[in-house]
Amino acid sequence: MTLPIAVLHPNVAVSVPVTFHMQRKAWSWSGNDFTVQDVQTGTAFFKLKDNALSCRQTKTLLDMHGATIAIMEELIFSMRRHEVYSPTMTKWFEIAPQMVVFATQLSSFATDCVTRRRHSPRGQNFKPFELFHNEYYVDIAPGVDMALIVSFAWHLKKRSKIDNDERIQLLEILLYF
Questions:
Q1: What is the domain count for the chain?
Q2: CA gap 147, 48 in Å, rounded
Q3: Engineered SS bond to 152: which of 123, 134, 145, 166, CB 3.0-4.6 Å?
């Protein structure tokens, strides 16, 4: 068995596969806030809170108790590159979009917070047809940092929206370490 990979926090790596349901919160100020819960149990794990008045496109990943796990920003003139910070605003890693045929890919270099080993996670999305654009599903493999995958899922959703393809429903996250 491989060791768990914990980039954002060691407590958020799961030992079994899990599927998350990311649903946009209706009537939020920014219109882009999400609740993330386990499909099987209905247990809420995370919240994604968007700062509607931020010129840096700031989004905060919170646990269900309201504690900040990560802060994600798209800097001005950054070519759609996002930076992910710790709650103390220490830069953890960057996520950069790459264009490929019929898909959007993201690449990154991140350091495991337990082993201090560098990894290169990659995310890729799948876009089936859907009429409403307010919910997404994310599959997470055992031993992988759930908060990291949720941050990748949000970036994939955002990148797909920027590319004028708002048909994204299922975010299939593929990690290569």
A1: 1
A2: 10
A3: 123
Residue ranges making up the domain that contains 93: 17-171
Neighbour-count burial of 35, counting CB atoms closer than 10 A to its CB (0-12 exposed, 13-18 middle, 19+ buried): middle
Q: pTM for this one?
A: 0.67
Question: Helices then strands (H, E): number in the chain?
Answer: 1, 13
- Name the residue among 153, 139, 117, 145 with its Cα closest to residue 4: 145
Whichever domain contains 150, its CATH number is 2.40.160
Query: Is 4 a domain residue?
Result: no
Cα 71 from Cα 54, distance rounded (Å): 13
Residue 176 lies in a domain: no
Which one is predicted more confidently, 135 or 58?
A: 58
What's the pLDDT tens digit per position in 120-130? 654 444 444 45
Q: Are 145 and 8 in contact (CB under 8 A)?
A: yes
**Distance, CA of 65 to chain centre:** 19
- Residue 138 has which token pair? 């994310």
Classify residue 7: in a domain, yes or no: no
Residues 6+ positions from 41 with CB-CB distance below 8 Å: none
